[in-house]
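Appendix B. Chain record.
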Amino acid sequence: MKRQLILEDGSVFIGDGFGSDKRTLGEVVFNTGMTGYQEILSDPSYCGQIVTLTYPLIGNYGINRDDFESITPAISGFIVKEVADFPSNFRSEISLNDYFLSKNIPGIAGIDTRKLTRIIRQHGTLKGAICHIEENVQSVLQQLRATPLRVDQVKQVSTKTAYPSPGRGKRVVLVDYGMKHGILRELNKRNCDVLVVPYNVTAEEVLALNPDGIMLSNGPGDPKDVPEAIEMIKEMLGKVPMFGICLGHQLFALACGANTEKMKFGHRGSNHPVKDLRTGKVAITSQNHGYTVEEKSIVNTRLEVTHIALNDGTIEGLQHKDVPAFTVQYHPEASPGPEDANYLFDQFMSLIESEESGVNKCQSVQI
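Structure tokens predicted for this chain:
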């Protein structure tokens, strides 16, 4: 079954279809990870995007029940060089093709993913469509160029109602902007009494839950498209210790008066080096984001830059100078990827304990 990938710049790639045969439109991005395709395809931060995997062979270890980062994938499509028809792994339960069929997700294989990645690196992320080989290219192009990308991705992937994940430890309100299950797992591992709440929760509703700490999750899209989240964070600053990841990091920066901007092609992969500016140590991190905090916008805020990306110098971590709050742009829950930054969850627990004991929280915890 032949399909074509059509980009808004007019580029056309012909390949073999797998998964669903529906037509799909979305923002075409690339991920450089060599493994972890199951976690990538189920990451809610890819909502509305067509994901290109630069590693050439995908699906060779199949799909298993344990490695999902969400119940329902939110990606629009998958692009690979070669898809494995017969996976081999003791945990494998279903092939990538069969899984995509069950979830109505289209994929295309057999195209030059290196060429596609070079186009994205040169021009930036592009809108694209995966469609049947017989569809008219000019008609699809016209539709692509006339159809704006959706801006309500967080609303699509966030939980609709609050729910608990009980524990006997610290009570943490986890705001779901497109939460990866890895974040919840790390909090559960530390016996936290977690309450997961929707993206549009108000500060008043959060305070009514009597939390010891607030976790701002990852999520898709432009942080400026979630003004209600920015307002909630602004009202909660200084009231409860706060830890933000990825989109949560960007929303926190906006709430503190900084600015965010779209990156040319973003950071998506599991081997991004990040430097801690206070210790000089470098961690290898998992990342997935298309926006970044603008460096010059930090100057007139009460924020301190704590981490930077070694590849391009962009901001990877922030800490508030006056209140107990810190954030990182990368994924310390590491799904998929290295676990170098997993300690940040322990430091969030220490920040909560420092606040409860009345210790100077901004200086007592080194993040």
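Further analysis of this model is presented in Appendix C.
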